[in-house]
Each structure stands twice: as structure tokens, then as C-alpha cells.
Amino acid sequence: MIIPAIDLIDGQVVRLYQGDYNQQTTFEYSPLAQLQSYQNQGAQWLHIVDLTGAKDPNKRQTELIGELVNGLNANIQVGGGIRSEQQVAELLEIGVKRVVIGSLAVKETALVQSWFKKYGSDAICLALDVNINDQGEKIVAVSGWQSGGGKSLESLVEAFKPYGLKHALVTDISRDGTLQGSNTQLYQEIVNNYPDIQWQASGGIANLDDVAAVRDSGAAGIIVGKALLIDNFTVEEAITCWPNA
Hints:
245 residues; alpha/beta; TIM Barrel; 8-stranded parallel barrel; 12 strands
């Protein structure tokens, strides 16, 4: 499944290079118009990252996200520095279908496990953003990728499987924003090891060959951001390559 994405800073559509706020590209697009275009081309899910909220929880763009949800019919998945149950509840109340939890799943595992029990596994997607070291270990990064969490992808999956983990978004940080292709070997490995999880691939997608490679890896979906914003291909073309299931 193709999941088009936009990142938002202060209401503007942006892209960061490997999560670095100092390497920001701003696009002169209306967030709603851009997402409506993706929806009209056939996207059933859309992915929004609140980068302002990720950096400063007191400046979360919840009101804007609510306006976007109201202007769209597609399902919306939202991430970006979720730090409390109140923030999860607020997003679900305004119509967001799935909340993406990253750093907190590493730092406060038991708390996030309780949210799986309360809100259900369809309402939460874990964001496992990994740095792969020379030993091949997949270490999950935290705090907007500025530090390592000290836990492996596998250990976190095992921690959440008993709570019904169903959706997980995995980014190879070294590929994000680079347009150098996705780490399909990573996705093949985790799909083989955990076939019951709906894995979403993210990072590095530049062209339709990259989309096809992720499709063939066995991942359930692919997050596409920068390549769409710079018109490397359209959502419609991507869906033709990988039809929505």
C-alpha cells in the first residue's frame, strides 16, 4: 500500500535531511491541498508528521491536524513526538485513525503497552527508526534521531507482541531524505521474522523501481514523502506499481 506523507513545521510542508532540523527544505504547498491531491489520486491512508510538536510539545499542531482531517476522507496516521496519553486521546478524538509512537515506546515501554490495551492495536503504530551498526544490530533511535535508545528493534517488537502489536513503521535513518533507495534487505528480514506485523517501510524512496523493490520485500506499506513533493513520480503511478490491497 502506498502511504503519501507530509511533514509539518509551523503549518508549512517541509522535509528534513536525516531528521536534522538544520537541514530543512520548505515547500510552498498548502498542506490540505497537497493531501487532497494525494487522496484524489487514490491514496487510502495519509501520513502526517508534526515536527513542531516533536521538538516542542507545547506547540503541537493539533488544531491544524484537525482541520486537515476534516477536509479529507482518507484515513490519517499522525506522528511526531507523542509524549502523553492526553496527546494520543486528542488525536483520536479529532478523527485521526492511527497514532504513531516512537521514542516513548523505547523510554517508557510499559506506558505505551497500556495504551495498546486501552485503545487497541489498530489505533497505534510503533515507529522504529533504526541505526544499523557494523555488527548489523538495528538500534532504535530516540528524541528526533538525536540519540540512540540503546534497545534493538527485535527487543521492542518482542516487548509489544503480547499486547497485540500490529502496525510498525521502520526507517533506516541512513536512507531518510537521501533518495538513495530503501533498505529492502532490512524489510525482507523483519517480514520473515515477524510475518504477523503490518510493516511500513520509510526512507530513501526516489523512483518507481524503489517502490517495486519495497513491494517485493514483503512490507505491507510504504511511506513516500520527498519523492512526491519533488515530482519524481505521482501517487497514481505508485499505486499502479503497487495496488492498494
